[in-house]
Amino acid sequence: MKKFKEDFLWGGALAANQSEGAYLEDGKGQSIIDILPVGEKRKHSLKDPNYAFEQTFDYYPSHQSIDFYHQYKEDIKLLAELGIKCLRTSISWPRIFPKGDEMEPNEAGLKFYDDLFDELLKYNIEPIVTINHFDTPLYLSQTYRGWENQQLILFYKRYCETLFRRYHKKVTYWITFNEINMILRNPFLAGGLITNEKSAVFQAAHHQLVASAEVTKLAKSIDPTMQIGCMLAAGSVYPYTCNPKDIQAAIERSRDQYFFIDVQVNGTYPYFSQRYFEENGIQLNRSQEELALLAEYTADFIAFSYYTSRLETVDNELRRNLIEGNAMASVRNPYLKDAGWGRQIDPLGFRITINEIYQRYQRPLFIVENGLGAKDERTGEHIHDEYRVDYFRSHIEQMAEAVKDGVDLIGYTTWGCIDLISAGTGEMSKRYGFIYVDLDDEGKGTRKRYKKDSFSWYQKVIETNGEII
């Protein structure tokens, strides 16, 4: 039976906008995330960006966050002790191009990532870099309407060329857009859009797809060894019953998450897209040149996040009480345990999802987000989080089964290996890490780091390449 490859990349994941802080420091511009508050006001802002544009809030979590910008050396030393082989992180676009449309980059921002990558490589930790992780410059959203505007392809390409030429000897694996399908659920966060109108959202997504193909072509011309991947927010969709209508509803819901990955991997819009566009009154501007580019420059690998599966039904009574996790609403599954924040725990669903993606695309997979958000209790320097160990153990067991099934897996990075700010709620109390950060939902605390019980557990998993879990 197959086991994890000897060079399997065990690691952790974080994002610049949820960890760096250092708001406007060293020439950084504003990101769309920088105007978002915490809690219900954040949720309101994500649905209606004008709500955030038009007022000032008492606290913006991203402005200081966990201060990774200043504490990255200490944090990487801890992660090296954990034993990780790779760290998935992102580059803050407005730290490199403050407004997004400049001709020349901000050298201070580039220098920070030079130092960050060098620090990782010093410990033999491979950087896995997301180019745009919910971090579009705010100026591009307010001035150009975000990715709805075709000009963002040019700005993004200029940004990517700067990164590729600067870091190609330090970074092999690149992800063009974080969870590209999330633009259908949260157009502002994923695309800097200030509208939810369907045609605008799909046009923005098309521009992201073209941009992704453009920079894949560019990357291969600069350094063919660079691997350019796409990413989706994944989770298999189950029918609630064997009623054929439930099964059809689940199929249609599942198409949402694969719609854009079909383009990025297969090089063409899926066969069902024409009917979908016609029935929803969606008209896209797509040139033949763009379609040819999409066909030729496809993704080298598929990255994805997995937190839970989803359940679909046509029963209106059941649909009255949907739960919503990671912006993906679902009917509650009576066979699964709740994890809080609208999520249920489904380890077997992890294996099902991995196989579903691999069967659909036959392309190497990289699991770049998986984890449990929970309210950890700290007693002195101790954080006992056996529930997190249980979560990861059950999921890694199923990931190992997927490898035995024959799936080609590059690696596995747990989400929030160090506690960070939640993208959806802005909370700090929704903790994911093996490392606790002393910070609360109002930004109060010392930001001191503490190792949780799960730290030593994951350390052993990595040390044994998944043999001991």
What topology does this entry show?
Blueprint: E1 9-13, H1 16-19, H2 40-47, H3 49-53, H4 68-82, E2 86-90, H5 93-96, H6 107-122, E3 126-132, H7 138-144, H8 151-167, E4 173-177, H9 187-191, H10 198-222, E5 227-234, E6 237-239, H11 244-266, H12 273-279, H13 288-296, E7 301-306, E8 310-312, E9 323-325, E10 328-330, E11 337-340, E12 343-345, H14 347-361, E13 365-369, E14 378-379, E15 382-383, H15 386-405, E16 409-415, E17 435-437, E18 449-451, H16 453-463
Parallel strand pairs: 1-2, 1-16, 2-3, 3-4, 4-5, 5-7, 6-8, 7-13, 13-16
Antiparallel strand pairs: 9-10, 11-12, 14-15, 17-18
Core attributes:
16 helices, 18 strands, 469 residues, 8-stranded parallel barrel, globular, two-stranded parallel sheet, TIM Barrel, alpha/beta, single chain
Tally of helical segments = 16
Uncertain runs:
none
Helical amount: 40-55%
CATH topology: TIM Barrel
Taking all residues together, what is the mean pLDDT?
A: 96
Structural class: alpha/beta
Highest CATH level, the class: Alpha Beta
State Rg: 21 Å
Give the CATH architecture.
Alpha-Beta Barrel
Beta-strand percentage?
Answer: 15-25%
- Overall tally of domains: 1
Provide the spatial order of strands within the biggest beta sheet: 1-2-3-4-5-7-13-16
Please report the distance between the alpha carbons of the first and last residues: 17 Å
Q: How can the largest sheet be summarized?
A: 8 strands, parallel, barrel
Large-scale geometry: globular
What is the assigned CATH homologous superfamily? Glycosidases
* DSSP, total strands: 18
